[in-house]
Amino acid sequence: SSTSTPPHYACPSSTGTQTCGSYEFRFAVTSLDPLVLVIDGGPLSFRAHCPLLREQHYQYLKKGLRHLSDAYECLDASRPWLCYWILHSLELLEEPVPAAVASDVCQFLARCQSSTGGFAGGPGQHAHLAPTYAAVNALCILGTDEAYGVIDREKLLDFLYSVKQPDGSFVMHVGGEVDVRSAYCAASVASLTNIITPTLFEGTHNWILSCQNWEGGLGGVPGLEAHGGYTFCGTAALVILGKENMLDLKALLRWVTSRQMRYEGGFQGRCNKLVDGCYSFWQAGLLPLLHRALFKDGDRTLSLSSWMFERQALQEYLLLCCQNPGGGLLDKPGKSRDFYHTCYCLSGLSIAQHFGNKDLHHELVLGKEENRLAPTHPVYNICPEKVARAIQHFHQLPVPAHTRSNSKT
Amino acid sequence: QIDDFNLMWDSPDRKEWADLEPVPQDDGPNPVVKIAYSERFRDVYDYFRALLKHDEKSERALALTAEAIELNAANYTVWHYRRVLLQALEKDLRVEMKYITAIIEDQPKNYQVWHHRRMVVEWLSDPSEELQFTAEILSQDAKNYHAWQHRQWVIQEYKLWAGELEYVEELLEEDVRNNSAWNQRHFVISRTTTYSPPEVLEREVQYTIRQIKKAPHNESAWNYLKGILQPTGLSSYAGLLEQVEGLQGSCCSPYLLGFLVDYYEEALETNGGKYNLTETLNKALGLCDLLAQDQDTIRREYWRYVARTLQSQYDSGETSPPLTEQQ
C-alpha cells in the first residue's frame, strides 16, 4: 500500500478473477519501480521529463485545418466538428489563427449553414444539432464580427423548434434520434447566441434529470448505463438552464470521481471499462461544474485550491501516454491520433492545470512552464474570454420572435 | 452480404446515369478541412447531390444511397433520403431489414444505422427479431451502447420483458464485471416488479453479495448493492452492516470501505437514535482517512471533502478527527 506520493504506476493491474479475456482489458502501465514508467519495453523517467510536444501538435493542427487525407471520409458529415476540434486545440496552445484562415473558416461554415436554419455536416447536407454546436463554437472561437455574422439567429431558432419534442427532449436532426447530447447542443448554441425564448426549453430539464440513474451518472436516454459523454452533456445543459441543483449532486460526484483510474491516472467512460484520453474532458470537466453547483447550494467545505480529482495523475497520463511523437493526441498507447482526441486530451489537460476562475486561480502545471495551456470554459469548452465576448455581442441583439407561421411542427 | 446491394458502381459504363448532371460539392474558393476524397467517393456523392437537387425518387436513387452509405455510413442526410425513397417506392421492408442487419454487423458503433433499424421496425410494427439481433451484436461486444439502447427501446415499446432477467444473468455469468449487464438488471427490475416488494429486494441483495464474494474487487456489484438499497435506506436493511463488515476479511476493497462510509453517513443523517453520533462520525472519518491516505489515494481530494463535510455537519466539537492536511 502507498503513502504520501501515489505510486500510480507501481503495481500491476490484475485484480481477482480475470473474466474478460481480451488483450485490451489487460492494458495498464506496469512497473516494479515507482520512479520508472515502462511503456512498450522502453523505460522513461517521468518525473523529470514529460514535455508537451507543442510544435508537433501545432504542425499537425495547422495542416489539418486545410487538408485531410481520405482517412477522413468517415467524417465527411462532421466537418464543422473538424473546424471546432482544430480551432479549440489551437486556442488552448495559444497559437493564433491568421486572419485569412479565420475568414476562410467563416465562409466555409456559412456554406454549411442550412437554408432552414442550423448547420450541417457539410455543404448541401441537412442541419443537425451536433455540427450546429461545433459550428457555433468554432465561430465564437474566431470571435470576429464576420464570424458572429455568419449565424442566422432567426433560422437557428426555427431549427431548434423543429427538433424539439413534446417530452422536453430534442432529436438530433429532423427524422433523427433522441439522446441527451441534443439538449446540450441546443442549450449551448441558444445561450451563446441569445435566442432562448420562454418556451424553447420547456420540459427539457425534467427530461435530462430522468437520465440520471442508479449509478449517479447520466445515460444517453432514461434507463441507459451512466456514461461520461452523456453525463457531461446533461450536466452542462442543466447548468445552462440553471437547473443543475435538481440533480442528485452527491451521487453524481461519487460516480464521476470513481471514474478516475487508480493506475493509469486517466478516466474511463463507464464503470469497468478502459481508460481513454478523451474522457479527460468529458469526465474531469464535470468537476468544475459540480464544484460550482455545490457552492451555489451553500456548500462551504469545498476545496479552495483544487478540483476534486487527482490533477497530477491526469496530466501524467495525458503527457506520457496520449501524445503522438509526430503531433496529435490519442485515446491510449497503441491507438492512432485524431483531431477529436487532440481536442479533448488538450481540453482535459487544461482542466487539470487550472483551478478556479479569473478571481481565484490555482495552477498546477506538470513539467515545464511551457506545458501550460490556456484555460477552457467547462460548460462550452471554448476559452472563457471567447464565451464572454460572444455573450456580450449577442446580448446586444433582441431575441428573435418565433411565430407559429414559421414553425415546422 | 453487403456486397449484394452494391452492384451498380462496378459497371464502368454508366449509361444509366447519363441523363443526370453530377453536382460537385460547394466548398468555396478557399476550402478548410478539405478531405482528399477518393475518385469513387467524389463520384458517388456528386451524383447523390444531383439526385437530391432533383428530388428524384427512383430505384437507381435507392441503389445509390447504398453506395453512399458504404462510403460513409455516418452521412445522416443520405440515410434520411433512403427512408424517403423506401416509403415513396413502397419497398419491401423485410428486404430492408436484411440490409440493415448486414450494415450493423459491419459497423455496430454508428448512430445512424441503429436509428434506421428502429425506423424499419416501427414501420413493420415487428420487433420479433430484435432481441435475438441485439443479443448477437452483444455476443461480439457485450457493452455496445447502441445495442443496449436499441434493446431497451424494443423491450419497453413492445413489452418484451419476459426472459430479460434470465438473459442478464447469463451475461453476468460470462462476465460479472459487465456494468452494462448490471444496468440492464436494474432496468428490468425497476420497470417490472420494482424493488419495493421485500422478497425482490432480499433476492437482489443476496444475489449481489454472492457476486461480490466471487469477485471482491468488482465495482459494478458494489455500486449495484448501494444503488438498490439507497432509496429505502442502507441502514433500514436488517443485518446489512454485519454482512458487509463480515466481508472485510476476505473481500476487502476500496469499494467495501466506501460502502461503509455511505452506511455511516446515512446513519448520521437519519439519526434514528440507534447510533452513538460521535462514534459513528469517528468511524466514518476514520474510513475517509484510510481511503484518502492509503486505500484509494487517487480519490484523495474527494475523500477529504467527504470528511470535511461530515465534520462540518455532525461535529458537535467533542470529536478529534485525524485530518492531517489543510483543504
Automatic annotation (TrEMBL), chain A:
CDD domains membership: FTase (cd02893)
Gene3D superfamilies: 1.50.10.20
Enzyme class: transferase
Domain (Prenyltransferase alpha-alpha toroid): residue spans on this chain: 52-382
GO biological process: lipid metabolic process; prenylation
Subunit structure: Heterodimer of an alpha and a beta subunit. Heterodimer of FNTA and FNTB.
Family classification: Belongs to the protein prenyltransferase subunit beta family.
Protein name per UniProt: Protein farnesyltransferase subunit beta
Lineage: Eukaryota, Metazoa, Chordata, Craniata, Vertebrata
Automatic annotation (TrEMBL), chain B:
Reactions performed catalytically: L-cysteinyl-[protein] + (2E,6E)-farnesyl diphosphate = S-(2E,6E)-farnesyl-L-cysteinyl-[protein] + diphosphate; geranylgeranyl diphosphate + L-cysteinyl-[protein] = S-geranylgeranyl-L-cysteinyl-[protein] + diphosphate
Gene3D superfamilies reported in the protein's UniProt record: Protein prenylyltransferase
Protein name: Protein farnesyltransferase/geranylgeranyltransferase type-1 subunit alpha
Alphabetical list of InterPro entries matching this protein: Prenyl_trans_a (IPR002088)
Keyword terms, alphabetized: Acetylation, Magnesium, Prenyltransferase, Repeat, Transferase
General function of this protein: Essential subunit of both the farnesyltransferase and the geranylgeranyltransferase complex. Contributes to the transfer of a farnesyl or geranylgeranyl moiety from farnesyl or geranylgeranyl diphosphate to a cysteine at the fourth position from the C-terminus of several proteins having the C-terminal sequence Cys-aliphatic-aliphatic-X. May positively regulate neuromuscular junction development downstream of MUSK via its function in RAC1 prenylation and activation.
EC number: 2.5.1.58, 2.5.1.59
Subunit structure: Heterodimer of FNTA and FNTB (farnesyltransferase). Heterodimer of FNTA and PGGT1B (geranylgeranyltransferase).
SUPFAM superfamilies with a match to the protein in the record: Protein prenylyltransferase (SSF48439)
UniProt family annotation: Belongs to the protein prenyltransferase subunit alpha family.
Source species, domain of life: Eukaryota
Acetylation is among the record's keywords: yes
Provenance organism: Electrophorus electricus
Required cofactor names: Mg(2+)
GO cellular component terms attached to this protein's record: CAAX-protein geranylgeranyltransferase complex; protein farnesyltransferase complex
